[in-house]
Structures are given as C-alpha cells and as structure tokens.
Design goal:
The structure is a single chain. The protein is an all-alpha fold and 419 residues long. The protein has one domain. 73% of the residues lie in helices and 0% in strands. It is built from 16 helices and no strands. The radius of gyration is 26 Å and the shape is globular. The chain starts with 5 loop residues before the first helix and ends in an 8-residue tail after the last helix.
Length: 419
C-alpha cells in the first residue's frame, strides 16, 4: 500500500470541502419547514440537524459503496479525475446556493464524476445500468412518491384533527415536526454524507492507498460526518427561505406530514443503496403537503425554477468537470490552475452573497429584498377570486357607492353652480 501523494491529499481536502457545501446547501431539506412554522428557533434547528447528520453518517455504507464501486470503473481512474469531478460539483452547489435554489448536491456530484470520467477514459468508464437504476430513476420517482404521500398524509391529519382542541393539537404537531425533522436529518446523514465517503474511497483506490473493493475506512467516515455536520450548522439560510416560504405556506400539520414522508423515502433509499437526492424528496414532500390543505397552494413559479435547476444539475456539473479534467490532463500546472480557479470562484461567489445577507435573523422574512419569490399564476388566481371578509366588503361598498340625492338636495344649488 503506497503512501499519500500530494494530489491524493488535495483530492481528500477538496472532497471534504464539497461535503461542507453539501451540509449548508441541504440544511433546508431537514429544517426549512420546522423553521418556517416556528416549531424551532433557527439556530437551535440547525444545531440539532448537524448532530443528527453526524450520527447518520455512521449508520450505513451502502450509498458509499454505490459511489466507490458501482457508478464508474475503478480501473484507469486517476485522482485528478476525481478532483475535477469535485470542482464541478462544488461550483454548482455554490451557484445554486447564491440564488437560493434547492438543487441536488447528490446529482451535482454524480454529474461531476460522470463528466470527468468520460473526459478521461471515454463513455465506457461509466456503468450505464447503475446510473439508470440507482441515480436517474430514483431522481424521478422520489419527489413524486414523497409528494403524493405528503399530500394524503396532510389531508389525513386535518381530517383526524378536525375536532381536536386547537391549541393542544398545534402543540402536538409542533412536537411531531421536531421529531420528524430530526428523522430527516438522520436520513440525510445516512445518504449524503456517504457520497463523500464514496468519493474519498474511490480516490484512495485510484491513488493506490487502498485496495480495490474496500469499504470506507473509519477515518473517512468520521471526517465526512464532521464536514457535513459543520456545514449544516452554519446553515444554508438562502435555501431554507425558499423551501420554507417560497414554495408554499405550511402549517404545523403540513410540516409534520412533509418531513415524515420525506424521511421515509430517504431511509428506504439508503437501505437499498440508491444515491437519492434528499433535495428532490423534501421538495416534493413540501409541495405535496402544500396541496394537502384545503385552500393550500403551491407557488409554481418558484417550483418551475427548481425543476429547471434539477434538469441542469447533471449536465452542468458534468460539463464543468470535463473541462477541469482536460486542464488537469495538461500536467501538474494544469491541476494547480484548476485549484486556483476553484478557490477564486468560490471566494467571488461568497463576496457576491454579502451584498444581500440572509441569516437566522431574517430567514422567515418575505418582503422587500428578501422576498421569497412571486406567488405564481395559480396562487394569484385563487387570491383574486377569494371573497373579502364581510366587514371589509361593507366598508368598501360604503366608501365607493355614493348616496342617492334626496329631493331637498336636488333643490339646493351647489357651490359650483352659477346662480
């Protein structure tokens, strides 16, 4: 077994940097609805999520094995290829975080790995059957399954709680939200933290520091868990705002239904080794829960932007990774150039984000510069036909319909009428 080379150390550090961005990018998956409904204070929510992400990282290695052993051919993959894949994934994560779009960190990583592998060794380096069955099909099925489950779960909770005491029921649902949010965080650790474990394990195999077909070493599991937990604690407040306020307005009953449905889908996928997008699952569950309440609506303009970002994630990350791999192939100076470009681009994105700061103090604001986005056609149409309250209608009619002139008024000349 060979010792660490410089490029292998760079790949491991870059992979942990990606894991960090995955943490703050995907915090919204677990905590957005809990924060938006007021069940937990923002800082408490992200702290709880961070701890449970770390715990979840130790529960399974099935997804890590899908990444390290199944998606691409280990033979002929150099550490530079994995470095290029991470560059594409990190830049896509940062760009979508900047604009507040909850895209999939998982698919950014998959796209980067696919693009870099093809640029290095050709199309044959990617196992198409694994790509379809364990990446693409779950990407389509997860939001649909989670959305339908959340919609019916929301309707069921409203039906069962129709005669319940309002204050007691709200308190119970908030407690349920906290528990289900913790379950989503735990599920996120079992799925997303493992992707970085798989990437690091693949890099160690490619660099000769680990035997082929090895499971992730303990230090890899621990470092990946700590990186995603730290990123989670810092909080991706921009995306939390979009998920909590931009898609729909959730009540505690809906938040509980959405999180429980998403957690079930994610945990089942982790058990089966599917490289599932927790973003897709939770987004689908939030939209389903929004439609599950009578009179509830989804802001389809925001949802459409999300769908477009989902569709672009794989090809965009793959293209950037392929270009990065081509530059890395020019030699050590090419790898250094890509590393400098990654650091400079990340710093530039961070500087741009400082122009409009979104943090735990204003994450639930939806006015001014922090608007969660336009309401969309469906929401606007429903608002337009919703009748105003009776008192407001009476005042409006009184203010706008002039009283009819009486006979005495007709005989009285107005001040403007010449005598």
């Amino acid at each position: 077994m060979e010792s660490f080379s410089l490029i292998l150390a760079i790949v491991v550090v870059t992979a942990l940097a990606f894991d960090f961005t995955n943490g703050f990018h995907d915090t919204a998956n677990a905590m957005a609805t809990t924060i938006s409904t007021g069940a937990l204070r923002p800082k408490v929510a992200v702290a709880m999520s961070a701890v449970l992400n770390l715990v979840g990282a130790f529960l399974s290695v099935e997804v890590a094995n899908t990444i390290s052993k199944g998606l691409v051919d280990e033979t002929g993959i150099r550490p530079e290829v994995i470095f290029a894949a991470l560059v594409g994934a990190i830049l896509w994560n940062l760009l979508t975080w900047l604009v507040g779009l909850p895209s999939s960190s998982s698919h950014a990583l998959m796209g980067g790995l696919i693009g870099a592998a093809i640029a290095s060794a050709g199309v044959g380096a990617v196992h198409g059957d694994v790509l379809v069955t364990k990446v693409l099909l779950p990407a389509i099925a997860a939001p649909i399954v989670a959305g339908v489950a959340a919609m019916f779960a929301s309707r069921l909770t409203y039906t069962l709680g129709r005669k319940a005491d309002g204050a007691a029921a709200a308190k119970g649902y908030r407690a349920g939200q906290i528990a289900s949010a913790g379950l989503v965080s735990l599920a996120h650790g079992t799925n997303d933290a493992q992707k970085t474990m798989g990437i690091i394990t693949l890099a160690l195999v490619a660099g000769g520091a680990l035997a082929p077909d090895s499971d992730p070493p303990m230090w890899v599991i621990l470092s990946a868990g700590l990186a995603i937990a730290l990123g989670t604690y810092l909080g991706g407040w921009r995306i939390i705002r979009t998920m909590g306020k931009g898609l729909t307005d959730l009540q505690p009953q809906q938040g509980f239904a959405a999180q429980t449905s998403a957690a079930t889908v994610i945990l089942a996928s982790s058990h089966l080794g599917f490289s599932l997008s927790t973003t897709h699952s939770v987004s689908g569950a939030v939209m389903g829960a929004g439609l599950g309440r009578k009179g509830g609506v989804v802001r389809w303009s925001t949802a459409t932007r999300m769908f477009v970002a989902w569709g672009l994630t794989l090809p965009a990350a793959a293209l950037v990774a392929a270009l990065a791999e081509w530059v890395c192939g020019l030699g050590d100076w090419g790898t250094a150039l890509v590393a400098v470009f990654l650091v400079a681009s990340s710093f530039a994105i961070w500087k741009i984000s400082r122009r409009e700061v979104v943090d735990h103090t204003n994450v639930n604001d939806t006015d001014g510069a922090g608007d969660a986005g336009p309401a969309g056609v469906v929401t606007t149409a429903i608002a337009a036909v919703t009748p105003p309250p009776a008192g407001a209608a009476a005042e409006e009619l009184t203010a706008t319909i002039p009283a009819q002139a009486t006979a005495s008024d007709a005989k009285t000349p107005s001040a403007a009428t010449p005598v």
